[in-house]
Write a structure and sequence with these properties.
Two copies of one chain form a homodimer. Chain A is of the alpha/beta class. Helix content of chain A is 18%, strand content 32%. Chain A has helices at 10-20, 163-171, 209-219, 235-248, 266-271, 307-326, 380-383, and strands at residues 26-31, 44-45, 55-56, 60-63, 77-85, 99-103, 115-118, 122-125, 128-131, 141-142, 153-155, 176-181, 183-189, 193-194, 206-207, 224-231, 251-255, 277-279, 284-285, 291-295, 298-303, 335-340, 344-345, 351-361, 364-371, 386-390, 396-397, 402-407. A six-stranded mixed sheet of chain A has the order 7-4-6-5-9-8, with no helix packed on it. In chain A, strands 16-13-17-21-20-18 form a six-stranded mixed sheet, sandwiched between helices. In chain A, strands 22-25-24-26-28 form a five-stranded mixed β-barrel.
Chain lengths: 412, 412
């Protein structure tokens, strides 16, 4: 293949890339709810206890446990009812010896009380409560700090914040947290490109769709993307553009100019930047042109201009790079086991990404392979709802084989 | 249990709720890249072919197939080289009888040509190309429309738009698409609540953290959330607030005021709105207080004020409601099979949501149950990285049982 003397295996390419990256994005303080999807850049420590106070874990009567010693159905103990606490109670009653305060679940335990007798174990008569049961200390009491203790780490550095983390952080009164602010520069190349705003394209031109797709994929990792436009087919220009971008951004992503048959501007431009490592082409199908370099510790990821191949480039280069820089781990992907409806033939020593259509028939799950060759088969991106990854040591799978498939969209 | 005469099974509650909803959100035209995460409200049809023109599928020479009849290594056919096409070529060459044009992969096929002879099957000598092989019509040609044909539906109504859909839609020059604009009103209730901005809370008060968590969960479904504040403990006020919200929003979500031990304001307020259906309490653990109603075809979802129980309320009521209104299906969730480290005991006839901590030991995946009782165990939301759902017909699982667990966060 012209331009690809030898294709680097994906694992080797990733290792060479990741081990040379020596750069951490800056951090920024963000309002807790807005941190969803971002990665914590510091351990977050609980500034208070949860519960913040001893509280009733059941509806009933707050008492002094010692006052209930010897109580039973046949010989109840009478305690004087001196008040009521609800979760929102402002005025705080106190339980003295021989007294009880009615409490609702979640209400602060009145001062002096150390246990809750449920309604089921008691009856109110006149101004008194009959207690039918001796209860131990802290019976039906949620102790202060038993859920989260002050000083405890609740969110570790490197954790991608989820909506339910916000539930915990906000409950602790944490208004802002530190998150990484990873910033990517995106540079498109290719004399054939016109922007979506200028659609329909003139004859022979195509729309720069990869730009929008990659932007959204990177934003999904919590990355801010700055689009720096379509570079003209000019090595000097591209060299300057990448060089400047490296000064202001954590990662530079280019598209186009790396495929067989395309004028070769990007690799020469990056070569001129004296990269510590430069991988030109990778043993992926589709996605062979995807390339990567590290310049002064920062990643320069050169993806195919074709959307299908660029998705593979995103998976094998962009995602691991971002995760490494912010110390995060990959989110789990949904997978299923399905039966192949047709044979899939793939080249040996290449990792193949085969889009499939998953469907149920007679209660059984099947995977129909959509295409295995060419990065131009765009429609597989919308037609496929699953992805079958064929590893390097296989030449495919047979019809009827049960394979593991990553589920990308709901199954019909 | 006070306030819950009978708990409705989840499946029954969902059916009663969903079958009465008779409302569709409005649609809005959105720039294609911004549609990611939203749901298409109309089928999207390809306005052009992809490829938009016949193009070279390999590097080589565009020829007239009939000119190659009889060509072989031993008796090559000579064609006159009359130009070169790259993917971005402006000037369009033409191939006449006995002629060839050099083409790069992706380049428009020159007029007159109908096949591509790869470099490997040819050699240039002087101004001529020696062709070593007879090729059939459309050999190494991507035909116009073979990937996506003009008029074809590329994205169906009800599909949640993914980044790779943007790759396809933008390639087709589709600048905007119609998506649903689902709008939710969120009303918090509970005299004990203070807002996160007012943290730390005074004694006896707690922070309205559920508000932020639910907002982010709903936004994750592509819903716009309008927060209408903390309602005072007043049935009239809550009634008016919900009534007004129903006029302007597609779904009204309340939090608090539905749990055992809480003052009961929300259910009486909704009852006064003459709901077509009213479910008060559901057989879920945690999450029993979660309630739902339909008023004039619109959903009113009354969730617990406790974050852990509210997450369950979101899963069983909010998510299915939103999906039904926009005609979308649930996104696939990642699951694994893991071995329980301890027995899990759950009540019969209740669906239990048990947070677990998934971890590997000696290459085997284990699930450590974190807590099964109480909606107040907030820390399970950050400590757990998995969710075990115990169905209604089981009273739990034994230690050592292999169970299916939904993966919420990366596994250590």
């Amino acid at each position: 293949m012209r331009g690809f003397k030898s294709l680097t295996p994906i694992r080797e390419a990733q290792r060479a890339l990741l081990e040379r990256i020596n750069h951490t994005p800056t951090e920024t303080e963000t309002p807790t709810p807005e941190a969803v999807g971002k990665v914590a850049s510091r351990d977050v420590v609980a500034p208070m206890d949860i519960p913040p106070f001893d509280r009733a874990a059941f509806d009933g009567y707050a008492v002094r446990a010692e006052d209930t010693i010897g109580a039973s159905r046949t010989s109840p103990i009478m305690l004087k009812l001196v008040g009521r606490h609800t979760p929102g109670s402002g005025q705080l009653a106190e339980v003295g010896q021989g007294e009880a305060v009615e409490v609702a679940t979640g209400a602060p335990l009145p001062r002096g009380a150390d246990a809750v007798v449920p309604y089921e174990e008691s009856t109110v008569r006149g101004g008194y409560v009959e207690i039918y049961r001796a209860v131990p200390k802290y019976y039906y009491v949620s102790r202060r700090g038993e859920d989260v203790a002050r000083g405890e780490v609740v969110v570790r550095r490197g954790r991608r914040i989820k909506p339910w983390d916000v539930g915990v952080l906000a409950s602790l009164g944490i208004k802002k947290i530190y998150v990484y602010r990873a910033r990517a520069a995106l540079i498109s190349t290719g004399g054939e490109l016109v922007e979506l705003d200028d659609a329909p394209p003139p004859p022979g031109k195509i729309i720069n769709s990869t730009r929008h797709m990659l932007t959204k994929l990177m934003e999904g990792l919590g990355v801010e993307v700055a689009y720096l436009g379509i570079a003209p087919d000019d090595v000097d220009y591209i060299y300057q553009k990448i060089r400047e971008a490296l000064q202001h951004y954590d990662v530079v992503v280019t598209t186009g100019g790396v495929s067989v048959g395309e004028p070769d501007y990007v690799i020469p431009a990056v070569s001129r930047l004296n990269p510590e490592v430069l991988i030109h082409g990778v043993a992926a199908r589709p996605g062979r042109p995807n390339s990567a370099a590290v310049v002064s510790g920062k990643p320069v990821l050169m993806l195919s201009g074709f959307p299908v191949a660029a998705v593979v480039g995103f998976e094998i280069f962009v995602k691991p790079t971002i995760l490494k820089m912010v110390g995060a781990r990959e989110e789990p992907a949904p997978t299923v086991r399905a039966v192949l409806t047709r044979r899939v033939t793939t080249p040996i020593n290449v990792r193949s990404f085969v889009r499939v259509h998953l469907f149920y028939r007679n209660g059984k799950l099947y995977a129909e392979p959509l295409a295995v060759n060419g990065s131009g088969v765009l429609s597989t991106l919308t037609r496929g709802n699953g992805l079958l990854i064929v590893p390097e040591n296989r030449e495919g799978y047979d019809e009827g084989d049960e394979v593991e498939v990553i589920v990308l969209n709901p199954i019909d």
